[in-house]
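=== Given protein ===
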Amino acid sequence: MTETALTLSHIIVDTLEEKKGEDILLLDLVGVCSFTDYFVICTGRSERTLRALAEEVRLRLKSRHSITARSVEGKASSGWVLIDYGDVILHLFSKALRDYYRLEDLWRDGQILLHMQ
C-alpha cells in the first residue's frame, strides 16, 4: 500500500462522514490483533445507506488512491458489510446488528482513536 494504515483509516472515516455514516469508530488494534491494525466501525440507517457507504469507500479508495479491497463479505441487505483492506478492516452495520455483535466490546483491548456519534 502506498498509504499508511492510519492514513487509510482516516480516509475511510472521512468518506463515511461525508456520506452520512453514523456512530463512526476508529479502533487501534496494533499489538492486540494479529490480522489487522485498525477497525473502522460505522452504522448505516438503512440497507440503502449501507450500500451507498460501501460503494463510496470502495470507489474513492480505488479512484483516488489506487487501493482495492482484498475482500468484501456480506451485503447491505444482511445488515453487515465487511471490507478488508489488510491493515484496515471496515465494518458497516445496521443499528440492530451493531448492537447485537458489539465489536467495540469484543475488541475492548484496542484503543479508541476516534468516535464520531
